[in-house]
Amino acid sequence: MIRLGSAATIGLMALSRIAQLVAVILVIATFNFVLVQAAPGDPAQVMAGQSGASDPKLLEDLRREYGLDKPYAVQLASYLGRVVRLDLGYSYRQRRPVVDLILERLPATLLLTVTAFCLALLIGTTLGALAGLAAGSVLDTVFTVLSLVLYATPVFWLGLMLVLVFSVTLGWLPPFGYETINVKLAPLEHALDIAKHMIMPVTSLAAIYLAIYARLMRSSIIEVAQQDFIKTARAKGLSGPSIVVGHMLRNALVPVVTVAGMQAGALVGGAVVIETVFAWPGLGRLTFDALLQRDYPVLLGIFLILSIVVIVLNLLTDLIYRLIDPRMTTGAA
Amino acid sequence: MSDTVQAKAPVLSVEGLSIALPEGGDRPFAVENVSFEVKPNEVVCLVGESGSGKSMIAHAVLSLLPKSVNIAAGAVTVAGQNPAKLDRQALRRLRGGEAAMIFQEPLSSLNPLKRVGRQIEEMILTHQKPMPSAIEVHERVQQLLTQVGLPNPKLLEKSYPFELSGGQRQRVMIAMAMANRPALLIADEPTTALDVTTQRQILRLIDDLRRDRGMGVLLITHDFGVVADVADRVVVLRHGKVVEQGTVEEVLRNPKAEYTRELIDAVPKARLDEIRRTAVHPTPLLEVIGLEKTFRVKRGLLQPPREVVAADGISLTLHEGETLAVVGESGSGKSTLGRMIMRLTEPDGGAIRFNGQDLRRLRGEALRQARKQLQIVFQDPFASLDPRQKVGDAIARGPMAFGTSRTEAMELARKLLVRVGLNAVAADRYPHEFSGGQRQRICIARALALKPRVLIADEAVSALDVSVQAQVLALLAELRQEMKLAMIFITHDLRIAAEIADRVIVLQKGRIVEEGATADVFTAPQAAYTRDLLDAIPGRDFFDQPGFASVTGALPTARMSS
């Protein structure tokens, strides 16, 4: 069989995926819009309620002002038209464009989730690999119990307990926030300050994923260790470490990459809870606040951005998958 | 064997070896008090059925035994060293250095995610001191790939195992094993997963390399045909004990042990004189006319799909009580043919007439009724039974689906179990409690429960040990007689086809290249492809296959190529 250069094949695949991406985004935008409309209450009611008077006249005016009196179809069409132009609308509550709001919060969320994801993947697979290689040993038992405990611990509870221990009791770490406010710091000190603030939220967020990857990697390593080609490698006279590095790791990573790719999206969802617990100024908090305030444009914007993030992550997983496993490149197994 | 060989010290000697199994197994020792030697430039075959402990011995030679088993007594000496007593470093030098090993399944024995060239390089880099330069290593890899007869080594070294054929993969394994010029090659069923013609090529290659380098070969096999072709000496194992050993002439010509005789007898042989001419009804029961099927395998985005022709105008007829063998190598389309007749795979074109009806036109209830009369038994008796369904249920489900009451169906299931040589109480047990041969009997009982008129056996005995294979074949022959069954026997093993079939069809790439009465096809093959296949039957000289009988009275040549 003649193989196309794998780089060329992967490039072509990426192009076709991007075309799919645009179509999927429009479908998701429509779906989000319908979903939010289906929820009871509209922003005019909330605003009117908060200003103290549920005057029908005020309600009417507010609705007309924000275009909420038009038919759903018209609202949807104008929304999609704007999405295509990358205009996500205007937050009536915050009186700012949605794009600005999201872009302002996105870096903090990405910092939190990407760090948590990388750490979970790195530490999880390492611990899992060690446990798998030493299957049945004391080390393996300890790791397995530990990962089970982490897996079963609710994310918010872990966050609260960390705060209780490390901030309230020991006073080692700042209990919440992104940085120490009202203090001028040199760039390096500023970075360290942010890092210090990140420790607990990242730990809480990463814990459950770390446990999942560790368990997955453990069973994957155990399975690969029983494969015939590992016996071949031993019969070749390779040393233990070179068998692990040269033959086991890459094969064992295939299922982990699959699951990690699927879960990377869920990680962003998990950030909503953690950001609320730690008052982290990211998209999660923005979502939470927008939800309480029925701030439709912001919610729609966030959903859309999160969907795009998830789709892009899936695309990346596919690409990485193909780099790890050459059997995927030609589509022939 | 020359005198110089005799004089040399053995490359492998196994003395009084006993390997203990973990407690609670069906026997305390996997291998008990086994002794034999392999001298340089000599091929010793270790023969036995599954569970005889032959692979255990091979693994003990390189100290590759699983952790749960250990050597209880005796010693292995490879090139003057005892692997069990070596430190890690020395053991690693032995593995792949003085002694190399190849395995049964070349696909799973190669790392799927590493280019084959790199896997061979690794073998060189691990053992050659001082470390050769990158250019030297590369040259050596090219040289090895050429030596094992692989075309276009430049392209090949960049390939991944999944891109190669079974034979090519096994050649890569051999190239890897040869990389450091080992004194001993251990080959654990190296050709069992391969087609006959590929098997012959691989055995020849091993034999050529043996002669070139004067290395000792320990070849593990279950096939006496292979033994007859390549062995200098034979060690016959049963339940972990040596029942007989000696030169190939001694053991094959004058077996001393009863068990050896049984094994040799069990090798399927053409019994052409015994094949009766079935009284042929004027109208065939099953008629296949111009069947076409092409599989399209999707590839990359811009590449056209790869087309595999599985059937290219196949026509055949089958009469009541007749057995038709369909033979061919893997990929010839023989299994697809069976599946198309069952309508498990939809053909692209052609017609299938069964009992006067056009099977391809049937839908719904009519198809269901027709299918009842066409039953199939698959190759893998482990995968073809639901592990969570009792054997009785598995057999009774069919008749129950056609309206038989549960009590009656279970009664029938018990009767059938007795008929296929099992016990009626087997009905209440689960498939995992049975051996491979017993499971295949269960599968046959399941197929017969619907009182079919045509039984398709798709490699139904290929996964079984020879002695079990012989029993299952005998059972099928009896049933055919008794129930006037028409059988389509799909097999890659021509010896089996010759033993059981009235007529034979030879398939190559979806086309019938030869068709005729078994005796004619085997004694006077017309197509070159059929001749190739017959030529490749292991042990054909020894077992005196028709059409290839050696000059009367001449001793069979033990070596295929010397």
UniProtKB/TrEMBL annotation, chain A:
Q: Which Pfam families match?
A: BPD_transp_1 (PF00528), BPD_transp_1_N (PF19300)
Q: What is this protein called?
A: ABC transporter permease
Which UniProt keywords are present, listed alphabetically?
Cell membrane, Membrane, Transmembrane, Transmembrane helix, Transport
Spans traversing the lipid bilayer: 21-39, 110-136, 148-174, 194-212, 252-278, 298-321
Q: Where is the ABC transmembrane type-1 domain?
A: 106-317
**Domain of life from the UniProt record:** Bacteria
**Record-stated family:** Belongs to the binding-protein-dependent transport system permease family.
Tell me where in or outside the cell this protein is found: Cell membrane
Organism, scientific name? Bradyrhizobium diversitatis
Report membrane topology: Multi-pass membrane protein
TrEMBL record, chain B:
Give one GO term, molecular function aspect. ATP binding
UniProt KW keywords:
ATP-binding, Nucleotide-binding, Transport
Q: Primary place of residence?
A: membrane
**Positions of the ABC transporter domain:** 12-264, 286-534
One Pfam family cited in the UniProt record for this chain:
oligo_HPY
Q: Which residues cross the membrane?
A: none
The listed locations are: Cell inner membrane
InterPro entries registered for this protein in UniProt = AAA+_ATPase, ABC_transp_ATP-bind, ABC_transporter-like_ATP-bd, ABC_transporter-like_CS, Oligopep_ABC_C, P-loop_NTPase
Q: Which domain of life is it from?
A: Bacteria
Please give the function described in this protein's UniProt entry: Involved in beta-(1-->2)glucan export. Transmembrane domains (TMD) form a pore in the inner membrane and the ATP-binding domain (NBD) is responsible for energy generation.
Family stated for the protein in its record: Belongs to the ABC transporter superfamily.
Q: What's the protein name?
A: ABC transporter ATP-binding protein
Q: Which organism is it from?
A: Bradyrhizobium diversitatis
